[in-house]
Structure formats: structure tokens, C-alpha cells
Amino acid sequence: MLMRTDPFRELDRLTQQLMGSSGTWSRPSTMPMDAYREGDDYVIALDLPGVSTDAIDIDVERNMLTVKAERRPITKADDVQMELSERPLGVFSRQLMLADTLDTERIEADYEAGVLTLRIPIAERAKPRKIAIGEGAGHKQIRG
């Protein structure tokens, strides 16, 4: 149902992880995700721990789904001294090309426990269906 279009994006993500660089709006980091079919829905789950819902933006244009989020630093009192900071901050983004068999008009989004879950229904025209066989005019009886 998803089409990977840029193999270099994954290489870019790995490089950013190794170098510890934060994403920016012009060069966002990618977010880990799972994608699977569940019944008549296609489900995409994206990890966004520590991101508030008002910092998540979901857009669909034609068949391109874009999810952007920003994890901002937590404001600390002046007397706080940071000892260790490993949690990535900055902008995260994921673009997915959706197949024509998905109904992009009815996407549902939920956010719970740091996971953004998108449910995209399979379009009716893409679901398997039975075709009835009728007796047409081509079955005339020949008398002799």
C-alpha cells in the first residue's frame, strides 16, 4: 500500500542518528513508523514521544501524506544544570505516497502514549467482490 520513493532518505536518517543532529524545518529528521493492514483499514503508527498534539501537522495532497512534528525543549528553571541530554529535539517529518486503493477522504488520526496512529480505509472499489453471472441474449435456443 505504501511506495518508498527515496532510498537516500533512510541513509540520511541513519547519518543524523549517528551524528546526533537535530532536525530543522528545512531538513527535518525522520520518525520511526510501522505500517500494516488491519481488516478494511490500512494503519500507520508513528513514534512521536514527548510531542504535544498542537505540534503535529498532518496533510494529504492527492496521494501524498505528510506528517510533521516538532519536539521542543522543556523550559527549565535557571538553577537547573543539565547532566545528560540524549532525547532528540527539533523537527521530524515523514512523507508517504499512498496507493490509489486507499480512501484519503476518510483518514482518522489518534495520538496516545507518544504514538500517532493513522487509519486509512481501503476504498470500496479496491475491495474484492463477487460478480453475478446472468443469462444474456446470446443464449438463444436453436430449433431445427
Describe this structure in words.
This protein is mainly β. It has a domain at 22-74 and 86-124: Sandwich (Immunoglobulin-like), CATH 2.60.40. The chain is built from one helix and eight strands, in the order E-H-E-E-E-E-E-E-E. It has one helix spanning 7-19; strands at 2-3, 33-38, 41-47, 56-61, 64-71, 90-98, 108-112, 115-121. The strands form two sheets. It has a four-stranded antiparallel β-sheet with strand order 1-6-5-4, with no helix packed on it. A four-stranded antiparallel β-sheet has the order 2-3-8-7, with no helix packed on it. Strand 7 and strand 8 (115-121) form a beta hairpin. The termini are far apart. The mean pLDDT is 81. This is Hsp20/alpha crystallin family protein. Belongs to the small heat shock protein (HSP20) family. Pfam families: HSP20. Residues 24-136 form the SHSP domain.
Q: Topology of this structure?
A:
Elements: E1 2-3, H1 7-19, E2 33-38, E3 41-47, E4 56-61, E5 64-71, E6 90-98, E7 108-112, E8 115-121
Antiparallel strand pairs: 1-6, 2-3, 3-8, 4-5, 5-6, 7-8
CATH class of the domain at 22-74 and 86-124: Mainly Beta
Question: Could you describe the largest sheet, including whether it forms a barrel?
Answer: 4 strands, antiparallel
How many H/I helical runs?
1
- Shape label: elongated
**What is the total tally of β strands?**
8
Order of helices and strands: EHEEEEEEE
Q: What is the fold named in CATH at topology level of the domain at 22-74 and 86-124?
A: Immunoglobulin-like
**Which band does the percent of strand residues land in?**
25-35%
Uncertain stretches:
none
